[in-house]
Design goal:
Catalytic activity: ATP + protein L-histidine = ADP + protein N-phospho-L-histidine
Largest sheet: 5 strands, mixed
Distance between the termini: 49 Å
Protein name: histidine kinase
Domain Histidine kinase/HSP90-like ATPase: 293-382
Keywords: ATP-binding, Kinase, Nucleotide-binding, Phosphoprotein, Transferase, Two-component regulatory system
Order of helices and strands: HHHHHHHHHHEHEEHEE
Radius of gyration: 42 Å
Number of strands: 5
Strand content: 5-15%
Helix content: 55-70%
EC number: 2.7.13.3
Number of helices: 12
Length: 383
Amino acid sequence: MATFVGAKADAIRAAVCRHERGVDALWAALVAVVDGLAAGVVAGWPQFVVLHALLVWRRRAPVTVFWAALASAVLIWAVAAPGVVYPVVVVLVALYTLARHRPWHHLWPAAVGVEGVWVTALAVNGVTWEEFAALTAFLAAGGLLGVTVRLRQAHVTQLRERARQLERERDQQVRMAASAERVRIAREMHDVVAHNLAVMVALADGGALAAPASPQRAAEALSAIAATGRRSLGEMHRLLGVLRDGEVTAELSPQPDLDQLDTLVEQVRAAGLPLTLTREGDPPELGEGAGLTIYRIVQEGLTNILKHAGPRATARVRLRFASGGADIEITDDGGGRRAAPALPGRGHGLSGMAERAAAYHGQVDFRPLAEAGWRVHVRLRLT
């Protein structure tokens, strides 16, 4: 309801701004009618019309209109009709408009000018002290009302600008969060797809080699390929589900962590890579993110071994927890074949590994071993 009322108020203000001259002319006519009914103007009507016509320009030129109205009022009192009251109303409306639309340094000279006219009227035209006090009170009320409305409008404008700024910041944060989420999903997709494809390729190569001598082993390799493919499809479905509107359950799917490392090791061994996993120390209390980071780093390291090491390579994973951190070391002997030179920045897998480690103030070191193979060492700060 409040939003609807605010929207209607904004629409009304916009319409008034678009037809400012017509609205001011309507107000000038209304003031003239009220003054005419109250004063019963018959004689001197030309100056009456001219004085009220000044109010048509009161918002576009408030300073000029005020001083013109005050000068006209003085002339009317001095020459045409000393006792009429309607100039007071026009001067007060002009003073209110001046206080409403212009800063303080325009208001003080105007107030002094009006008060000077009142004092002159008190001395020359026989205005009583009661009338002088009433005119001064009207002067103060008009000026104070204009200043109050101006300050309130400035405050409302400031609040609206702040709201727009907060909305822009919120939209920027949403875009940044969406970008970070896309990067996270891309990294997860790479880890899942690259690892499972590497396992499937290794299984297929092993099955092809074993098929002539052992059809049973070839059939087992095909079964393992099918199982790996189904597992890969399931993980991809979970990740892609995050991108679909309304699929809330995708975020609730369990993420792999330290408990799934043994399953990962068995999967790699089934692909034909002899692998040893060594654990040292007791892990601290890990959140889901830390466990997933360690799992993905080990997975990426083993994927690289499956893809690049020789066919007779062996691998070793050492996971050590100490001093609130985790040391992950993944090595292979290259299968008797020296590894080709590589840089840590090449490939999405290595850069993704570095990004995961950086989230825990970690360091990643990639380097070839002296004889053959590679060593990946990652240090994470978990507490």
